[in-house]
Automatic annotation (TrEMBL):
Residues 59-98 form the Glycine zipper 2TM domain. Its main location: membrane. Belongs to the rickettsiale 17 kDa surface antigen family. It comes from the Bacteria. The keyword Signal applies. InterPro entries: Gly_zipper_2TM_dom. Residues 1-27 form the signal peptide. This is 17 kDa surface antigen. It is found in: Cell outer membrane. The keyword NADP does not apply.
């Protein structure tokens, strides 16, 4: 009896979780195409092209680390904190913009 109750409880918890995390019907029915650089896009119901663009997080992180290392190497006086911070900020902004610029202009 315990096993049956436990199995019913697990089933009751599993079904709503799979429904909650599944894609909406409109997302499953989309016909995707790919750009030259691998970005998937689709044509929406309003005729506009839609795509999943990169938000620049990867470029932000890599650029920040590279900028911090470059800033630390350039600033050779004192404790080098200023060069590290300025290099990280500049590298992060530059890396983010480079990462975000990889999508085609027709994507919205």
């Amino acid at each position: 009896m315990r096993k049956a109750i436990l199995a019913a409880t697990m089933m009751a918890l599993t079904v709503p979780a799979t429904v909650a995390f599944s894609a909406p019907a409109e997302a499953r029915d989309r016909r995707y195409s790919r750009t030259d650089n691998g970005i998937r896009y689709w044509r929406g119901n309003d005729g506009r092209y839609r795509c999943k663009k990169s938000n620049g997080t990867t470029g932000l992180l890599i650029g920040g680390v590279a900028g911090a290392l470059a800033g630390r190497a350039i600033d050779t006086r004192g404790d080098r904190a200023t060069g590290t911070i300025l290099g990280a900020a500049g590298g992060a902004l530059l890396g983010r913009e480079i990462d975000r610029s990889n999508s085609r202009p027709r994507c919205r």
